[in-house]
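Hi all, long-time lurker, first post. I run a small reading group and we've been trying to get comfortable going from sequence to structure in the token notation. Rather than ask abstract questions, I figured I'd post a concrete chain and ask someone more experienced to write out its structure so we can walk through it together at our next meeting. Sequence below, copied exactly:
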Amino acid sequence: MTLLDHETQPLEQWREGVMTLMRVSALVKSAQLCIFEQFCDPGLGAPIHLHAVEEVLEVIEGEAEITLRGETSVLRANQSVLIPAGAKHSFKNIGTGVLKVRATLAAPIFEASYEDRTEQSRRWIP
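-- Answer (accepted) --
Happy to help. Here is the structure in token form:
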């Protein structure tokens, strides 16, 4: 059994105003999942990107505008969206406080390709 103490895991700044807590990944010997939380300041989030695997994006606190394949919806706490593999998507905080989202990817290593070429493609590995 692998017990994970998330309070001891470090926060990482992925971009200005966006902090990330990697909860489950290859780092803790996960074979099929990557689960992380992001904390986004108002107006901030993730630009248009895609993953090679399926993702569930859940709003834990706050209000997010999520765009999936060009269609935009507003999600609030306890709502989530299923993002198919290869689907372009983005999200941003449209509230006044910090947005907390939890993402679950069907792979133990986070990889994303961004539409905006000034945004560096990201591959999070231990």
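A couple of things your group might point at:
The chain has a mean pLDDT of 90.
The longest strand covers residues 18-24.
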